[in-house]
Structure prediction request, 330 residues.
Amino acid sequence: MATSNLFTSSFFLCFVFVFFVLDTANAQGLKVGFYARTCPEAEIIVKKVIAQTISEAPSLAGPLLRMHFHDCFVRGCEGSVLLNSSTKQAEKDAVPNLSLRGFQIIDKVKSALEKACPGVVSCADIVALVARDVVAASKGPSWEVETGRRDGIISNLTEALLNLIPPFANITTLKNDFQQKGLSVKDLVVLSGGHTIGTSHCSSFTNRLYNFTGKGIVGDADPTLDPNYVLRLKSRCKPNDVNTLVEMDPGSFKTFDDDYYTLVAKRRGLFQSDSALLNDPETKAYVKLQASTHGSTFFKDFGVSMVNMGRIGVLTGNAGEIRKQCSRVN
Prediction:
């Protein structure tokens, strides 16, 4: 009886272990080279389209990188940010996404992939691969992208409003929101470095220049901003300006580098969420490290954190679908 119980217990533990391992693998379902057999030229095709795009329109690098962030933080990395809605109720119709650009590039990549391998490569994976390739094409790092995502079939404006982190977020909100997505404090400060490329509308930060306390006081600027930087931004952005674009990393907004951290350390982070990185010991230490002359680890760290972000809420296996067109469900 004792031998029988021991055997039964051992078998049960082994079963549980195997089930746990298989369940974890299936839940993730991503791997580098997922399309090696089904569409071996997939990543080469994406890279070729992006290289041509960035050579002709380098300003699209920032928006295409940002698209991956905005996709992953709402319902996970499953391409829902790409879907259109006839009633304007999709994620892309939410205010934070109205400034996203480059959807036509995603469609161009999808079209090229459909010609080579019909019905194989998901739009969600295209967004992830494009994000990597626009960074690399902007003189930034490259990394191995895990693929195998499938496309979602739901896109909801309200969910975008609830899940996308606003530019005025404080450090507590930032840490909580990243933690809820399974990302670490280090991922937070590293991925914030994506602001090294791209531009922003004045409306995302003019409250820091003219009415920071909300009391209507003349000269009511954010005291955490460098006063000289405030003056420079005021020369570009007047109150209620919703059209003007400002470089997030002045002087090198088309080049992916570590200058972002130098700016933040000098109190010249464009958004409150940038400045907030100086309000936490761990994020502040990282900012100072990358801004120092001792050598930056940012490029390597960015690739690691992008992989981490790319695992949020993925659909794999038989979940979701492989869209034929990225802007609509099959």
In short: Residues 2-28 form the longest helix (27 residues). The radius of gyration is 22 Å. The first strand starts at residue 31 and ends at 32.
